[in-house]
Amino acid sequence: MADDPISANPAVPSHPDPGFAVLRLASLDDAAEIEQLIELSVLALQAGDYTPAQMAGALGGVFGVDRQLIRDRSYFVAERDGRIIGCGGWSRRQTLFGSDAIEGKDDAELRPGVDPARIRAFFVHPGFARKGVGSQIMRACEDAAAANGFTSLTLVATLTGEKLYVRHGFEAVERYATPLANGERLPMIVMQKPL
User: Fold this and answer.
1) Burial level of 166, CB count in 10 A (0-12/13-18/19+)?
2) What Cα–Cα distance (Å) separates residue 169 from each residue in 102, 135, 145, 153?
3) In sequence order, what DSSP letters do the residues of 26-57 get, joined into one string?
4) Is residue 1 part of a domain?
5) What pLDDT is stored for residue 3 in this prediction?
6) CATH assignment of the domain containing 64
7) How many domains, the chain?
8) Residue 128 DSSP label
9) Which of 18, 38, 78, 104 has the fewest beta carbons closer than 10 A?
């Protein structure tokens, strides 16, 4: 389809080899491996967009595991050869981003058909970046959110992640910088799309 932004971009496989990565719902037993993946992904893939101080200030807080997503069964991991190589999810809760360590998270439930579902915490192992893993997870999130009655999505993107989300039809609606515990500020982008 010519106007499909995923198919039109050869750098992002529209349908990755189904044997490349196996997608499944994350379990709480995966949390330690996910944390390791997040740190590896951030330090390798976001280095072109953020300073070492910004990345260090964001790890563990802005970037980290939110176990509520896992308990809600709305967080996916992509596995290859028994290793987690990607993760990401959607949420029916108010919180837009952040790990368990973020203070003041709002876990109140959203209203399907009224509020947009949240896209949350996408990270890919640097050795498997740009091979369709993030797109595979995104499709699963979109399908699950739609199946739960949501008609739109919102997310807070990193500068690094913005390109993936644009390819999936998200549009930037606000740019801002969130304060970090170490005094740094992390530029981020609020993005939205209809389902």
Assistant:
1) middle
2) 28, 12, 15, 10
3) --GGGHHHHHHHHHHHHHHHSTTTS-HHHHHH
4) no
5) 35
6) 3.40.630.30
7) 1
8) G
9) 104
Residue at 13 is within a domain: no
Q: How far apart are CA 5 and CA 96, in angstroms?
A: 25
Q: Which domain holds residue 64?
A: 22-150
Task: Return the residue matching tokens 């976001």.
Answer: 46
On whether residue 164 sits in a domain, the answer given is no
How large is the C-alpha radius of gyration of the chain? 16
The residues, ordered by sequence, that sit 6+ positions from 180 with a Cβ below 8 Å of its Cβ are 54, 57, 58, 61, 62, 186
Written as tens digits, the pLDDT of the chain (195 aa) is: 333 332 333 333 444 555 689 999 999 999 999 999 999 999 999 999 999 999 999 998 999 999 999 999 999 999 999 999 999 999 999 998 988 877 778 889 999 999 999 999 999 999 999 999 999 999 999 999 999 999 999 999 999 999 999 999 999 999 999 999 999 999 999 999 999
Which secondary structure element, helix H or strand E, spans residue 185, and what is its range?
A: strand 185-194
Cβ-contact 47, 79 below 8 angstroms: no
Domain assignment of residue 161, yes or no: no
Q: What is the DSSP letter of 126?
A: G
Under 8 Å between Cβ of 21 and 86: yes
